[in-house]
Amino acid sequence: MADLYFYVADTYNHRIKKHLLSDLSYDSKIGSLGSGDDQFNFLHGICVDDTYIYVADHSNHRIVKRLKSDLSYVAKIGTFGSGDDQFDYPSGICVDDTYIYV
To answer: 3-state DSSP call for residue 13?
Structure first.
């Protein structure tokens, strides 16, 4: 059986942490303060599906998609505003088989 993990939005350290579910031990982390692909600015929400992690990157006004397996960057969307691809401090996020809800 494959190991199972849980992921933490470590808001004030601007990073995602990955822990082993069986004993809560630390596995890996990604992130620092900023707006680059491997950076966050007060990430607030996190959710997962079978393959990806989705992060509400609060003060960067964007949603970031990363691989669960190694936390590597996949994609991002969003800037500040009220347009179709814009957010105003996104906080909560969840995903189903079809949509991401922010």
So the answer is: helix
